[in-house]
């Protein structure tokens, strides 16, 4: 009898706790600051209005995952897709997002002010914002920056993996320092940061080199984002952030949004992936007859390396360790979620698509995080940065 009582209590306890993490997740504002569905699928005409079998994201699945605000990454590689150049690439991606919103006005909306962000959330729509991933797309022209963000809100990541003439990237500062004419932000780079502050465009420092990172922090008058970066001390990947950088972001009132990519979460995975890219990956790249952008190479790695890398995929707990690390170092006001869904070739076990965010809430609750802290991490912190930047 006592045994039955224990079993019954356990069952009740488990269902209550399952209920409570789901309730908390539903009540929280979830903001994801980085998703690559525009360049990986929508640009080619894929309709994500309803559930699709491939990829990580669509409107049905965002709803199931409890997502309220999604920054859509506008990305193009260091060689433009269009002969007209990077700016045209960016415009095409934004057009594909506008089309999705036009087709689904009851489910997704583009906000034009912080107030409209809140309104979209209240109306239970997915609020779409733009994240321009790489300063190369403004083609050294401030007018282009204004054109891309006209009637829209979001951030610009000062560099992608490629440097511009005004900002050096993490990849070049660490892996190809000899290729750089200068490190950090030039005067024009600083002018761009100041103009972004005036226009209400968030300065995103993911992908930037450390010198650019510190120059931008010294220039901006508003809180910054790192839209998809993880912790160097857990996984020393070239563009993860070091303790001093985390402290500097906290000093600025900004937020670091954790990237889910297995190679940025787990050092064993990262090590094996680097070996594979250097050996088999190099052979594959050398055999390709034409330029393949990073998104297409991701697809190739997924197909060719998945069997070998599957056993090395990190756990969900390992991802939450990155959140924990930042909270323990600087407090719970400076960390958020920047999945990089539809932009990565591998994800932690159990985080296979945008329906799975509630598992992060469950793990944070299991670790004893308060409801208040969890709400900040899921979206409250990024909402604070949006409010400080958007008009
Ligand atoms: Zn990126």
Order of helices and strands: HEHHEHEHEHEHHEHEHEHHHHHEHH
| Portion in beta strands | 5-15%
Number of helical segments with 4 or more residues: 17
Helix content: 40-55%
Fold and architecture overview:
- By secondary structure, the chain is of the alpha/beta class.
- It has a single domain, classed as Metal-dependent hydrolases (TIM Barrel, Alpha-Beta Barrel).
- The chain is built from 17 helices and 9 strands.
- The protein has helices at 2-27, 37-40, 59-64, 86-103, 114-122, 142-149, 170-175, 187-199, 210-219, 243-252, 262-265, 267-278, 280-287, 294-309, 316-330, 358-366, 371-389, and strands at residues 31-35, 69-74, 108-110, 126-133, 154-157, 202-204, 225-226, 255-258, 335-337.
- The strands form 2 sheets. Strands 1, 2, 3, 4, 5 and 6 form a 6-stranded parallel β-sheet that branches.
- The termini are far apart.
- The model has no long low-confidence stretch (mean pLDDT 93).
- Bound molecules: zinc ion (ZN).
- The site of zinc ion has 3 residues, from loops.
């Amino acid at each position: 009898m006592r045994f039955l009582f224990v079993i019954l209590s356990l069952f009740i306890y488990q269902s209550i706790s399952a209920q409570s993490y789901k309730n908390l997740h539903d009540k929280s504002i979830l903001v994801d600051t980085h998703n690559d569905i525009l360049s990986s699928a929508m640009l080619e005409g894929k309709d994500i209005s309803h559930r699709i079998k491939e990829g990580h994201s669509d409107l049905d699945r965002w709803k199931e995952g409890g997502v309220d605000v999604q920054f859509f990454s506008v990305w193009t590689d260091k060689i433009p897709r269009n002969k007209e150049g990077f700016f045209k690439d960016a415009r095409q991606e934004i057009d594909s997002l506008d089309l999705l919103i036009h087709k689904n006005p009851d489910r997704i909306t583009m906000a034009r002010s912080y107030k409209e962000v809140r309104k979209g959330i209240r109306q239970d729509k997915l609020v779409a914002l733009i994240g321009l991933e790489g300063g190369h797309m403004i083609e050294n022209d401030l007018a282009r920056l204004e054109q891309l963000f006209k009637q829209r809100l979001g951030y610009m990541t000062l560099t992608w993996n490629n440097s511009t003439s005004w900002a050096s990237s993490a990849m070049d500062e660490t892996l190809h320092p000899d290729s750089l004419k200068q490190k950090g932000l030039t005067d024009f780079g600083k002018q761009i940061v100041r103009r972004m502050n005036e226009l209400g465009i968030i300065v995103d420092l993911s992908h930037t080199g450390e010198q650019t990172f510190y120059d931008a922090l010294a220039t901006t008058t508003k809180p910054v984002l790192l839209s998809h970066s993880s912790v160097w001390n857990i996984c020393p990947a070239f563009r993860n952030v070091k303790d001093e950088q985390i402290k500097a972001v906290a000093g600025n009132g900004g937020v670091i949004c954790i990237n889910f990519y297995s190679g940025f979460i787990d050092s064993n995975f990262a090590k094996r992936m680097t070996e594979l890219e250097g050996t088999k990956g190099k052979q594959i790249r050398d055999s390709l007859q034409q330029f393949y952008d990073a998104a297409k190479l991701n697809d190739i790695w997924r197909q060719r390396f998945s069997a070998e890398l599957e056993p090395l995929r990190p756990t969900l707990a390992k991802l939450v360790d990155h959140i924990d690390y930042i909270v323990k170092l600087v407090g719970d006001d400076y960390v958020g979620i920047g999945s990089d869904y539809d932009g990565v070739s591998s994800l932690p076990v159990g985080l296979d698509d945008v329906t799975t965010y509630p598992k992060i809430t469950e793990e944070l609750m299991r670790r004893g995080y308060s409801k208040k802290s969890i709400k900040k991490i899921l979206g409250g912190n990024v909402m604070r940065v949006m409010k400080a930047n958007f008009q």
